[in-house]
Design the sequence.
C-alpha cells in the first residue's frame, strides 16, 4: 500500500568565513528551491493478524513500519561566492542534509502518513464507511 505526496520548499543558504581575523569576511550564499515527491509505503506481506474462525473475527496484531522515500529535486538560484570562500561539495551536501531533514519534519507533521492507514472495508461488494454501516450488514 502506497501513499504519495509532494512538497516544495525555498531555502536561503548563507555561510561566511572570517579572513585575517575579523578584519575581512568572505560570504557565500544561494537561494535553493526544492521540489520533492514523497512516498509512504507499507509492506502488507508483513502484516500480523489472527483469525478467530468461531466468532468470524479478523484481529490485526501489528501493521509493519512504514517505508518513507523522499525524492528531492534541487534547483540553485542566485549563487554568490567569494574567491576566498567558494562553494564546495561540502556546501551542497549540507544544503541537501538540511533540506531532507526539513522535508522529513514536514512529512511527519502532515496527514500523508495517517491517510495511508485510512483503509476501506468492503464486504460482498459493499463499501463500509463506518461502524453503523457495518452493523447493518447481514453476515
Sequence:
Amino acid at each position: 500500500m502506497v501513499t504519495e505526496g509532494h512538497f516544495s520548499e525555498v531555502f536561503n543558504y548563507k555561510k561566511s568565513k572570517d579572513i585575517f581575523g575579523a578584519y575581512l569576511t568572505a560570504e557565500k550564499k544561494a537561494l535553493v528551491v526544492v521540489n520533492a515527491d514523497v512516498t509512504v509505503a507499507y509492506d502488507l506481506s508483513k502484516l500480523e493478524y489472527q483469525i478467530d474462525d468461531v466468532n468470524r473475527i479478523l484481529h490485526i496484531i501489528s501493521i509493519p513500519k512504514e517505508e518513507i522515500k523522499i525524492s528531492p529535486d534541487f534547483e540553485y538560484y542566485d549563487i554568490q561566492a567569494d574567491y576566498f570562500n567558494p562553494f564546495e561539495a561540502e556546501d551542497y551536501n549540507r544544503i541537501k542534509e538540511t533540506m531532507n531533514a526539513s522535508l522529513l519534519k514536514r512529512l511527519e507533521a502532515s496527514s500523508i502518513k495517517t491517510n495511508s492507514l485510512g483503509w476501506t472495508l468492503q464486504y460482498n461488494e459493499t463499501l463500509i464507511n463506518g461502524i453503523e454501516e457495518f452493523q447493518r450488514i447481514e453476515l
Observations:
- Strands lie at 2-19, 24-41, 48-52, 57-62, 67-80, 121-123, 126-128.
- The mean pLDDT is 83.
- Residues 89-109 form the longest helix (21 residues).
- The chain is about 20% helix and 50% strand.
